[in-house]
Design a protein that fits this description.
The complex is a heterodimer.
Chain A lengths: L1 E10 L2 E11 L4 E6 L5 H9 L6 E9 L2 E2 L5 H7 L4 E4 L3 H4 L6 H11 L5 H14 L16 H12 L6 E5 L7 H18 L2 E6 L2 H7 L2 E6 L2 E7 H7 L3 H10 L13 E12 L3 E2 L2 E2 L3 E12 L3 E5 L6 H8 L7 E6 L2 E2 L6 H4 L2 E4 L13 H6 L12 H11 L16 H13 L5 E5 L7 H18 L2 E6 L2 H7 L2 E6 L2 E7 H6 L4 H9 L8
Parallel strand pairs in A: 3-8, 3-9, 6-7, 7-8, 15-20, 15-21, 18-19, 19-20
Antiparallel strand pairs in A: 1-2, 1-4, 4-5, 9-10, 11-14, 11-16, 12-13, 16-17, 21-22
Helix pairs in contact in A: 4-5, 4-6, 5-6, 6-7, 7-19, 10-16, 14-15, 15-16
Chain B lengths: L2 H22 L32 H36 L4 H15 L2 H12 L3 H28 L2 H8 L4 H37 L11 H8 L8 H28 L1 H7 L1
Helix pairs in contact in B: 1-2, 1-9, 2-3, 2-5, 2-7, 3-5, 4-5, 5-7, 6-7, 7-8, 7-9, 8-9, 9-10
The chains are: A alpha/beta, B mainly alpha.
Chain lengths: ~525, ~270
Amino acid sequence: MIRFDDLSLAIHGTPILRGVTLEIPAGRIVGLVGESGSGKSMTALSLMGLLPDGAETAGAACLDAENLLQATEARMCGIRGNEIGMIFQEPMTALNPVQTIGDQVAETLLIHNAAGRAEARAIARDRLDRVGLSHIGMDRFPHELSGGQRQRVCIAAAIALHPRLLIADEPTTALDVTTQAQILDLLKGIVAEENMALLLITHDLAVVSGMADAVAVMKDGEIVEQGPTAEVLTARRHPYTRALFEASSHAPDRDGRDPQAPVLEVENVLRLYPGPRKGFTRGDPVRAVDGVSFALRRGESLGLVGESGCGKSTLTRAVLGLDPVQGGRIALNGGAVDVHMPKARRAAIQVVFQDPYGSFNPRWRVDRIVAEPFHLFETRPPDWRAQVAAMLEAVGLSASDMEKYPHEFSGGQRQRIAIARALVTKPDVLVLDEAVSALDVRVRAQILDLLADLQGRFHLSYLFISHDLTVVRAITDRVMVMRAGKIVEEGATDAVFNAPSHPYTRALLEAAPVLEVAS
Amino acid sequence: MPRAFLIGAVPTALFLLAALLSLAWTPHDVEALQISARLLPPGGDYLLGTDQFGRDLLSMLMVGARTSIAVALVAVGIGMGLGVPLGLAAAATRGSLLDEIIMRGNDLIFAFPSLVIAILITAVFGPSAVNAILAIGIFNIPVFARVARGGALSLWTLDYVRAARVAGKGSVRISAEHILPNIANLLIVQATIQFSLGILAEAALSYVGLGAQPPTPSWGRMLAEAQTMIYTAPRLALLPGLAIVAMVLGLNLMGDGLRDMLDPRLRRVRA
């Protein structure tokens, strides 16, 4: 039995957690849900004794009768990995790249003197088999595995000593939907089999709704509501739970438009990458985009869905005229799109990227950032500052924000700045490359509303690229499903989501976690 | 401000001031030989004493600082001026033939022992401070090219660089506006390190007689000339030796401190 009892935490005097009380019984999955910065991860780290310097705690985090907040570091070393295992969000960085996966799983056993070297390897093999990696050798290195396989290795290492509690901190956020479904299934199976407790930390209500027995909703360091999952998600007593819930399934109001003439045409586009080096020659080229055709009509929202590595980013770069194509034709308003297209044509297609933190030069002020696309005009318009101010106001910021630096803004506000930058040249087509994927649900809902609003005001056509099916469904008229460089299915969004015809589309839809909307 | 930076700044500032002062004034003329005043002990008219030719040691150290700093500064300037643009160009065209040519050219320079090349250059063009600068400068080029390319490569994958490309900006403009300001901290830290290495290299070249030519004083040649006097007047060798050590140590500490100041990740770790 794991229990947080009135746990409070302050780091360098700043309060992080207040009065967190939560129980995690054996054999149960408890979901801890909240937005970024709500204190979910800190709750878990306080149990592990891995809090950053300057942390002061009050209350208790108990494993049975022992308060772990009081335990010595030596005692905690005995508990970590032995009694409590943990897996992290990013399987790419959670494994040591220069150690084989077998060694990394066996390491837990060796550190805790649970087994001799040979025996530890045998147990490691067994654990790897258990997480579904029986076809993968112990001597493989992390870089040889896919993201999902790496996360399985992390799980194998975490459960090597049959811990009583497994903490999973956003374990599937960095994974594709089909992989996510498999990992969640695996975790569920292990919990049942080992009678282990699982603390599932996530921002995604849909993941919790399908997994957890009980759920706690966290806001600003406090648990605002907790109880059995079905009850919390149906009753939604606390306004914050309700807000989260509504934002998760938010669909902005969009007025239906009649299909018009195509503004962006893509015909049979082929994008090849040089094949792997073989001595002084190279192997067959990789067909990243393999004969893709589609048309984006004026005023339309077109979704492009696919898992990582399917070629959607490569296609995006080709459509933006950043990379050359090896075959086919891309036309924007009838003119060819390529690396050397005239600036005026480039001004008609702009883009918003995923990462609200990497999207701006940290040394530039907002006015300079938003005005950058004016480079596409012959001369910068004399009233450029007024135009920038107007655009900032159009995306819900104020003109005075021009004087600030990007680090002074939150993730959602930064995404608004990115949209302002993309719209400042009054483009016809806006490419949204996972533009809302990194945002918290409530902020995401606001940005989706903003996008729907801007589309009407500026007569925009959207090419909406995302791996998130819920979002695509909410904002697009038509959708394309991409796999291995090819479009496997295309059609009206509702039709594709309600009656998918391609097996891959069906697999994607089945894998996506669904938030049961009980009224 | 990190302590390392402050501690390092003291000797560096001291030598810089001495070098600047020597442009206008030195206690004694460093080119005038005065055999009657040879090997005077410290004190009196000569604060640090005189050498075997009766020249004032303090004045020679001051002018020597000027020589060392000037040679190292110009050499770092050559290295940055040529290396950084090359590195930026290599990063902008990563994977291309140009990138290969630049980086393999760098490897080629790296593969030569620098002192041997310096000897070669001075053997062909004759020994002088200018040729020492050239020799040291050439070996700074690949260092800066690599640092610039490495820093720039990771920036080229960032979204704001892609956004600049969507805004129609070319590689040169992006390198100047977005890449260079964001790798400046790396380059500044590297520059302080190369500067101290330049001081050492100048001293080494002068020591073997390939640097500044007499009568221009230089720390390396003062060491070489003091060699025969090591038992009679050890301070003749000790003082320029200590000057070199203090200068190099100061610059390295400053580089360390600068890195702590300019790299926010390290700053957080050490806080």
